[in-house]
Amino acid sequence: MADFLHLSLVTPEKQLVGEDVDQVNVPGSEGDLGILLGHAPLITNLRPGPLSYEKGGATTSFIVSGGYLEVTDNRVIILAESAEFLHEVDRERAEKAKSKAEAILLKTGISEEEFKDAQDDLFRAVARLEHTEK
């Protein structure tokens, strides 16, 4: 048995992480999850929120905008819709995205698809704002 988890964090644009780690913390669709060595196999959806991993006592943090998680044989594969390092979050851009999404959601006569898209945008913006410093 391995002494580490192998983490792969991939977005449609690039692979952000591909390394051995001690622990992975993710925003699961049904609640937050902590993945440690020997975790049972798992596949789940991710919701927008903070994702982090720990390696040698150091923690690296991201914000993900949903996606999927698979855990098998001490491998953690995360396919994220988007991800950015926590220190790279642009608060001003996130504030604007939040305001725009809220305005769309207040409109009458929007389609279900427009509503869902605006709701997803709002969830992503709120996740980015809640987990960054002011």
Topology:
Elements: E1 5-10, E2 15-21, E3 23-28, E4 31-35, E5 42-55, E6 58-72, E7 75-80, E8 83-85, H1 91-106, H2 112-130
Parallel strand pairs: 1-7
Antiparallel strand pairs: 1-2, 3-4, 3-5, 5-6, 6-7, 6-8
Work out the strand percent: over 45%
Low-confidence stretches: none
The count of strands amounts to 8
The averaged pLDDT comes out at 88
Domain module count: 2
How many whole angstroms does the radius of gyration measure? Answer: 16 Å
SSE-based structural type: alpha+beta
The best one-word shape is: elongated
Q: According to CATH, what is the topology of the largest domain?
A: ATP Synthase, domain 1
Could you walk me through the main structural features you see in this protein, from its secondary elements to its overall organization?
With 134 residues, the chain is α+β, with helices and mostly antiparallel strands. The protein is 26% helix and 46% strand. It is built from two helices and eight strands; from the N terminus they run E-E-E-E-E-E-E-E-H-H. Strands 1, 2, 3, 4, 5, 6, 7 and 8 form an eight-stranded mixed β-sheet that branches. The chain is elongated.
Attribute tags:
about 130 residues, alpha+beta, eight-stranded mixed beta sheet, about 25% helix
